[in-house]
Design goal:
Elements: E1 2-6, H1 9-31, H2 35-59, E2 61-71, H3 78-86, E3 102-110, E4 117-125, H4 129-136, E5 144-150, H5 154-158, H6 160-167, E6 178-183, H7 195-204, E7 208-211, H8 222-245
Parallel strand pairs: 2-4, 2-5, 5-6, 6-7
Antiparallel strand pairs: 1-2, 3-4
Helix pairs in contact: 1-2
Length: about 250
């Protein structure tokens, strides 16, 4: 799990101030090479660097970078869901195309009411067994887990436990945040999986449950926004633990 700091304009201002002070100290030392001037120059440089770092850490925007594994049976709508999320609803796959490997998708999500964001690297993985084993080789220490099933297919829901068992060994023993997504909610008349049963099972696995439709604008975002919030909360908790030890 990584966290990078997107530094604001204040960093440039602080750097300029530091450079100006350092140049002033150098000029003083050139005309008076006393030990006192050398010490003064060194002290000023240290102070400026400390101030610069502190100000930047205070005003910067935190961008958490994480890897999310998206798994589930073939034809449940994983790729359509991920593509809609990445394109902000602009791209929907009308024709089914079987994924035979892992497609890497990148998307930045801003957390509402905060200055923070989460940078997703989504591993959209193949759902058919001949290709699933090869996909696992790319699941290197995922930070998040998204398991998708089709609400019109009870078999795809039953397979979710198998997909969770595939992903968790790659998490190095960590309980990573995750969601269970019942996709194709627009086909509710053909539903085979009860919402309450799916939600109850998700809770038993430590997952948050969502029902979505990759076809409908506004529904595809909820699972990923939930993951982003969970990941940011986990990161902030770890920061507090580290700060308490300092």
């Amino acid at each position: 799990m990584l966290c990078v700091l997107r530094v604001s304009l204040s960093l440039c201002v602080c750097v300029c101030v530091c450079v100006c002070v350092c140049m002033l100290c150098v000029c003083v030392c050139v005309f008076s090479l006393s030990l006192c001037c050398v010490c003064l120059c060194f002290f000023c440089v240290c102070v400026c660097v400390c101030v610069c770092v502190c100000v930047c850490l205070y005003v910067c925007v935190c961008v958490c970078v994480c890897v999310c594994v998206c798994s589930g049976d073939a034809a449940v709508g994983k790729s359509s869901l991920c593509q809609m999320f990445r394109s902000d609803g602009a791209v929907f796959q009308k024709n089914y195309t079987m994924n035979v490997g892992v497609e890497l998708l990148e998307k930045s999500v801003s957390i509402p009411d905060t200055s923070d964001a989460v940078e997703f690297y989504i591993y959209d993985s193949a759902g058919r067994e001949p290709f699933a084993d090869a996909c696992e080789n790319m699941w290197n220490q995922p930070s998040l887990m998204c398991v998708v099933f089709d609400i019109t297919s009870e078999a795809s829901f039953t397979s979710c436990s198998r997909w969770i068992d595939r992903v968790r060994p790659h998490c190095n023993g960590l309980q990573v945040p995750g969601v269970l997504v019942g996709n194709k909610s627009d086909l509710s008349s053909r539903r085979e999986v009860d919402t309450a049963a799916a939600r109850s099972w998700a809770q038993s696995q430590g997952l948050e449950y969502h029902e979505t439709s990759a076809k409908e604008i506004g529904q595809y975002e909820a699972p990923f926004l939930s993951l982003a919030r969970a990941f940011l909360s986990l990161y902030q908790d770890q920061i507090q633990i580290i700060q308490s030890l300092v």
